[in-house]
Specification:
Layout (H helix, E strand, L loop, with lengths): L1 H20 L8 E7 L5 H14 L3 E6 L6 H5 L3 H5 L8 H8 L20 H5 L1 E2 L5 E4 L13 H12 L6 E6 L5 H4 L8 E6 L3 H16 L4 E9 L2 H11 L8 E6 L2 H6 L13 H17 L5
Parallel strand pairs: 1-5, 1-6, 2-4, 2-5, 6-7, 7-8
Antiparallel strand pairs: 3-4
Helix pairs in contact: 2-12, 5-7
């Protein structure tokens, strides 16, 4: 019991220390966390929004925090190059260099709670098609709520450290569900895009994520309903949301698009279809991200 209490105190103290010492000051770019139930199209939407923003002149860093690590494939990185990527959390020497503790080495180690990770994109990021920078983070297998193992300290510091200048954007594709909101990795983001499809389970996950997002202090939360086949689907989602619809800043409905199946895993060719209702819907999402990401004094 005492050991459990000591561990909890260590976790809480470390979390507070990170909160006090990371991402101080204002920035001119914006950062977006993308979340939702598994299989609803988060990675596809992250990839396409990254391409759209880059084409409009933004400097984009697409961060893959999903353990499936499919974002490079969706971005159009060749398969052999994508297969060779080692996620940041698997670069044990780097984790130890930055945090002072080797993953899996146990508790009681001296950890650097605010590691300098300014070199992470240069050392481990790759340049994808369209000039989009891609950083594969990996995830923490034992990621229980509040876990502060060395990998988590590094992941949080990496995301928080990068101070964005005007025209710079971070889009983070997260693992399925809402577990990442139980940690603090999503804190400090300006906007959240919660992706669902017109199914009960997916909408429930989006509702839960919306509540947690608000608790984290993310001011702008967009709902993207993917694979809408009819007006009945849209009505169904609105009925399922009920009063929780007020949690969302804006809602977008993307029609089912067969071409996505034909071109995956590389979804960039979808953007060549200028008449596609799906692409038009995505551009509306992009416009909203830019609108809400623009600071009043910029």
């Amino acid at each position: 019991m005492c050991e459990s209490k000591d561990r909890k105190e260590i976790i809480l103290d470390a979390a507070h220390t990170i909160d006090r010492n990371t991402r101080e000051g204002s920035e001119e770019g914006f950062r977006v966390v993308i979340a939702g139930k598994g299989g609803v199209g988060k990675t596809t939407i992250t990839a396409l929004l990254s391409h759209l923003l880059a084409r409009d002149g933004h400097t984009v860093l697409a961060v893959d925090e999903d353990p499936q690590m499919n974002l490079p494939y969706a971005m159009g990185v060749p398969r052999e190059r994508s297969d060779a990527i080692v996620p940041l959390t698997k670069n044990l020497d780097y984790v130890e260099e930055k945090t002072g503790a080797r993953p899996g080495a146990g508790w009681g180690l001296m950890m650097t709670l605010n590691p300098d990770v300014s070199d992470v994109v240069e050392r481990f990021g790759i340049k994808g098609p369209g000039g989009v920078n891609i950083l594969v983070m990996g995830t923490v297998v034992q990621a229980a709520t509040g876990c502060l193992c060395p990998e988590n300290a590094l992941l949080e510091s990496v995301v928080r450290y990068i101070n964005l200048r005007e025209g710079e954007v971070i889009l983070m594709d997260t693992q399925a569900g809402v577990e990442h909101f139980g940690r603090s990795i999503a804190q400090g983001f300006d906007q959240a895009v919660l992706v669902t499809d017109p199914t009960f389970n997916a909408v429930q996950v989006a509702k839960h994520a919306a509540v947690l997002t608000k608790e984290l202090g993310i001011p702008t939360v967009h709902l993207v309903v993917n694979r809408v086949r009819s007006e009945k689907d849209a009505i169904k989602v609105k009925d399922l949301l009920g009063d929780t619809a007020d949690l969302f800043t804006e809602m977008f409905f993307l029609p089912y698009e067969e071409q996505l199946i034909e071109c995956e895993p590389d979804v960039e060719p979808m953007l060549a279809s200028t008449s596609s209702p799906f692409v038009k819907g995505l551009r509306a999402v992009q416009s909203a991200l830019v609108q809400y990401g623009t600071k009043p004094d910029s």
